[in-house]
């Protein structure tokens, strides 16, 4: 086996462990989602067992990542963008989905439990919950958002957001540095417009 292949295979276990921990999943929960035994998962993550394709496919599905991202395959002329997550303290992960300085910024975030600290700054934020429960603190108000729910607010108001409990939350986060608002065109079911349509 050549050195590059050996290095790729060796890196899979730690990458899998990091993905699982970033999402706040236990080995037991991942085992239930994939059908792979807890001991098998532990051995893969520690590098004591080489993962086969039959094991990697359910793991990629459970973590909602592409298989090539899971094994860090080199780019091959594929037109898709290969995103680079940024890991932060407390175990949170931020994935920039856009790179337009001075314009709307879009991120996918996995936020691990962290201390509350209200902040203010110029701009406008829009949060969409993908998985878990998000606690949003706006001044004196506290709101809990669940998957599929959205909140938007002016960041001049003191605010903080993170998991509502001890499990990570996954969100899409849009931030406008000049205070641009995200335009949501779909109307929630059951709401009528001013003409009564």
Topology diagram in text:
Elements: H1 3-22, H2 27-34, H3 38-45, H4 53-63, H5 67-70, E1 86-87, E2 93-96, E3 105-111, E4 124-131, E5 134-138, E6 141-145, E7 150-154, E8 159-163, E9 169-176
Antiparallel strand pairs: 1-2, 2-3, 3-9, 4-7, 4-9, 5-6, 5-8
Domain HTH cro/C1-type: 16-70
Pfam families: Cupin_2, HTH_3
Organism: Microbispora tritici
Describe the structure.
- Residues 16-70 form the HTH cro/C1-type domain.
- The chain is α+β, with helices and mostly antiparallel strands and 197 residues long.
- It is built from five helices and nine strands; from the N terminus they run H-H-H-H-H-E-E-E-E-E-E-E-E-E.
- The strands form two sheets. The protein has a six-stranded antiparallel β-sheet, with no helix packed on it. A three-stranded antiparallel β-sheet has the order 6-5-8, with no helix packed on it.
- Strand 5 and strand 6 (141-145) form a beta hairpin.
- The chain is elongated.
Key descriptive features of the protein:
5 helices, TransReg_Diox_bact_type, 197 residues, alpha+beta, 25% strand, Cupin_2, RmlC_Cupin_sf, disordered C terminus, three-stranded antiparallel β-sheet, Helix-turn-helix transcriptional regulator, DNA-binding
Q: What global shape is seen?
A: elongated
Strand order of the largest sheet: 1-2-3-9-4-7
Number of DSSP strand runs:
9
Task: Report helical residue fraction.
Answer: 25-40%
Pick out the low-confidence regions: 179-197
Radius of gyration using CA atoms only: 20 Å
Structural class: alpha+beta
Q: What is the succession of H and E elements?
A: HHHHHEEEEEEEEE
């Amino acid at each position: 086996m050549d050195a590059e292949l050996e290095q790729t295979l060796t890196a899979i276990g730690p990458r899998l462990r990091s993905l699982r921990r970033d999402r706040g999943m236990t080995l037991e929960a991942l085992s239930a989602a994939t059908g792979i035994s807890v001991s098998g998962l532990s051995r893969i993550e520690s590098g004591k067992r080489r993962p086969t394709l039959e094991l990697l496919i359910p793991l990629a599905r459970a973590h909602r990542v592409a298989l090539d991202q899971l094994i860090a395959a080199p780019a091959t002329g594929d037109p898709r963008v290969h995103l680079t997550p940024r890991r932060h303290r407390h175990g949170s992960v931020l994935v920039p989905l856009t790179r337009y300085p001075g314009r709307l910024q879009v991120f996918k975030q996995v936020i691990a439990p962290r201390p509350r600290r209200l902040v203010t700054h110029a701009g406008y934020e829009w949060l969409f919950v993908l998985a878990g429960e998000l606690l949003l603190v706006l001044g004196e108000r506290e709101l809990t958002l669940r998957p599929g729910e959205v909140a938007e607010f002016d960041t001049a108001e003191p605010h903080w957001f993170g998991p509502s409990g001890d499990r990570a939350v996954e969100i899409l986060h849009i931030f406008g540095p000049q205070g641009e608002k995200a335009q949501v065109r779909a109307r929630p079911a059951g709401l009528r417009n001013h003409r009564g349509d």
